From TrEMBL:
<feature type="transmembrane region" description="Helical">
    <location>
        <begin position="243"/>
        <end position="262"/>
    </location>
</feature>
<dbReference type="InterPro" id="IPR000109">
    <property type="entry name" value="POT_fam"/>
</dbReference>
<feature type="transmembrane region" description="Helical">
    <location>
        <begin position="330"/>
        <end position="348"/>
    </location>
</feature>
<dbReference type="GO" id="GO:0005886">
    <property type="term" value="C:plasma membrane"/>
</dbReference>
<feature type="transmembrane region" description="Helical">
    <location>
        <begin position="429"/>
        <end position="448"/>
    </location>
</feature>
<feature type="transmembrane region" description="Helical">
    <location>
        <begin position="22"/>
        <end position="40"/>
    </location>
</feature>
<keyword id="KW-1133">Transmembrane helix</keyword>
<keyword id="KW-0571">Peptide transport</keyword>
<keyword id="KW-0813">Transport</keyword>
<feature type="transmembrane region" description="Helical">
    <location>
        <begin position="393"/>
        <end position="417"/>
    </location>
</feature>
<dbReference type="InterPro" id="IPR036259">
    <property type="entry name" value="MFS_trans_sf"/>
</dbReference>
<dbReference type="Pfam" id="PF00854">
    <property type="entry name" value="PTR2"/>
</dbReference>
<feature type="transmembrane region" description="Helical">
    <location>
        <begin position="145"/>
        <end position="164"/>
    </location>
</feature>
<comment type="similarity">
    <text>Belongs to the major facilitator superfamily. Proton-dependent oligopeptide transporter (POT/PTR) (TC 2.A.17) family.</text>
</comment>
<feature type="transmembrane region" description="Helical">
    <location>
        <begin position="360"/>
        <end position="381"/>
    </location>
</feature>
<keyword id="KW-1003">Cell membrane</keyword>
<protein>
    <submittedName>
        <fullName>MFS transporter</fullName>
    </submittedName>
</protein>
Amino acid sequence: MAIQNPPVSQTRSFSTVFLIEMWERFGFYGMQVLMVTYMMKKLGFVDTKANLVWGAASALIYATPAIGGWVGDKLIGTRRTMLTGAVVLTLGYVMLWIPSNNPTLLYTALGVIIVGNGFFKPNAGNLVRKIYEGDDTRIDSAFTIYYMAVNVGSMVSMIATPAIRDWVGNRYGDAMGWHTAFGACAVGLILGLINYSLMRRTLAHIGSPADEHSVPVKRALALLAASLVLVAIAAFILQSLLAAKICVYLAGVVILGIFVHLIRSAEKSERAGLIAALVLTVQTIFFFIFYAQMATSLNLFAQKNVDLSWSLFGLHLYTWIPEQYQSLNAIWIVILSPILVIIYNALGSAGKDPSVATKFALGFAAVALGFFMYGFGALSAVDGQVSSWTMVWGYGLYSLGELLVSGLGLAMIARYVPARMGGFMMGAYYVAVGISQYLGSVVANMAAMPENISSPVESLNIYVGLFNKLGFVGVGCTVIAVVMLPLMKRLSRSHAEAHTILPAVHSEEV
C-alpha cells in the first residue's frame, strides 16, 4: 500500500529491495551455474537426466511464486513473506554445503530452495510495483534497473563459485571444493539479510495490508506445516521424471484456465489489460525456452567445444573455467541495462516510448541472431572448438533479447494487471516461466551426446544443429510478435482508456 507522501524517497525504498534481490540472486545463480555439471561429475547422472532434473527443479522454482504471491497478499504480508523466503533459501544452500553425494539430500535441499524462492520472488517484485505504482514510464525503468540487480548478483557468483570449487578442490579434495562453492551461496544470502535488517525502515510504508498486523500463531504454524509438505512433494517430483512431466503440463493447463477465468469474470474495464498480459505471457514462455539453454546445452557446449583460452590479437589474456561462460549473460545485462534505461526515459519524455509488445518483437529478433552466432563461430572452429569470443557475441545478442523480453515481463504484469490481483498474477507469470524452463531442458536434450561420441568435432555438429534450430524458432517468434502488434496496440489503448492514472508523487528520481 503505497502512500502519497512517503517518509523516505522512492529511490531509497527501491535500493533496499534492489540489494536483497542482488544477494538472493548471488546465491541462486552461484548454485545454478554448478548444478548440472555437479550432477554429472559427482552423482554420475547422464546429461539427459541432469538436464531434466534441473529443468524440473527450475520449473518448480518458478512455479511456487504463485503460492508465495498469495501468501504475501493475504496471509502474512508482502515484506514479511519476502524476508521469510530469504531465510528459507539460506537454509537450502546450507544443506548443499554439507559434504555428501547422497542424491536424496540434493533433492531435499532443492525442495527447500524451491519453497524459499516461492516466498521471495513474487513479493520482491510486488514491492517494486508498489513503490512506483501509477507511473507507467518510470516503472519500466525501475524494473529494468531491478533486473540489473539480478545480474549484478549472478555475474559475481557465476564467476566466483566455479573458481572457489577449483581452488578449494585442488587443495582439500574435489568433494570439499564442490560443497564449499555451494556454501558460498549461503554466505552471500546471509550478507544480504544483514544488509536488509539495516535498511528495513525504508520499506515500512510499502507492503500489503497484512504487513500491518501481527501473524497469529496458528496461521504461522499452518504455514510452516504446509511448507514442509511442499518440500517433500518437490523432492519426490525431482526423483521421478514422469511425475515432473505430468506436473509441468498440468500446470500449463491450470494457468491457462486461471487466465480465462479471470478474463471472463473481470470487470469490463479490466479485460483488455488481462488479455494483453495473457498474450505477452505466452510469448514469454517461448523466450524462456531459449533462456533455459544457459544452464543446460550452452553450459555443456562450453565444457566440450569452446577454447577456454582468451586471446586478443594473438596475445593470451587468461583462461576461463567452462561454467564461468554463463556469467557472460549477466555481464552483458549489467552493461546494457543502463543504456536501455536512458533510451526508455528519453523516448518516454518525448512521448515515443515503444510498446512492451514492440520490445518483445525486437527481443526475439536479438535472441535469434544470438543463437545463429554459435553456428557462425563454428565455421572457424579449430579441432571442434570455437573461440571464446563466439560465446561473447552470442551471449551479447541473447542478453539484449532477454532484457527486452524477460526484463519487462514483470513490468508488463505491473502495467496491465489490476492492483488487487498483483501478487497472485506475479506468481502466475512465474509459473509460466517455470513451464518453459522444463520445456527448455527437453529441448536441450535434443543435443544429448551418444555414448560413442567423444570427439569435439562430432559433438560440435550436434550442438550447432540445435542452436541453428533455436535460431529459426526465434525468427518465427519474431514474425508472430510483429503480426500481433496491431492487436496489442488496440488492447493497450482500450486498457489506457479505461484507467485514468494519476501522476505519481516523486520525492526523488530512480
